[in-house]
Write a structure and sequence with these properties.
The chain is built from six helices and three strands; from the N terminus they run ααβααββαα. The protein is mainly alpha-helical.
């Protein structure tokens, strides 16, 4: 027997305004951050990967862990790594422990590039985002997006355990 599909839960005007405001601001902000990193020949995606590598012990991390932390598919990360290897910012090394995986390793050039770009990137975050928020706004946004992220993570894990 066919099950009756429930009616969509359409967004009301307030909900639609909140959603669209978020989407437009997020896209504009990410676009602006990319533009601000361009003088360093970095994309925002490259910068994010370099940050994760810089924070990892020995400035190296397993590719699968890096993909998860950077929220990139394995194929997207592989593409990013090709770009970053060509630029000399990172390299891949075989994982001797299990021979299946590989390490992403930050090079000295990658470290220097990150160190040089970080002050400009931080100023970009401040001038384009933080300076437009009160302390309460910052706390509210952190609380809201921590909650959204936690729920999305739970859904992701549940869907991938099936």
């Amino acid at each position: 027997m066919a099950t009756k599909k429930s009616e969509p839960r359409w967004l009301n005007p307030r909900e639609m305004k909140a959603w669209r405001s978020y989407v437009v601001a997020e896209r504009r902000l990410m676009e602006a951050m990319d533009v601000d990193l361009a003088p360093h020949d970095l994309s925002l995606a490259d910068y994010g990967v370099l940050v994760l590598l810089s924070e990892a012990e020995g400035r190296r991390i397993r590719m699968t862990d890096l993909a998860e932390q950077a929220m990139l598919s394995k194929s997207r990360l592989s593409h990013r790594m090709k770009v970053m290897e060509k630029a000399g910012w990172a390299k891949r090394e075989a994982c001797k422990e299990d021979r299946r995986g590989s390490w992403a390793v930050m090079t000295e050039k990658g470290w220097k590039t990150l160190v040089k770009a970080a002050p400009d990137h931080t100023e970009s975050i401040r001038s384009r985002f933080i300076d437009h928020l009160t302390v309460k706004d910052q706390e509210d946004l952190a609380r809201i997006f921590d909650r959204v992220h936690s729920q999305l993570r739970e859904q992701y894990l549940a869907e991938n355990q099936k």
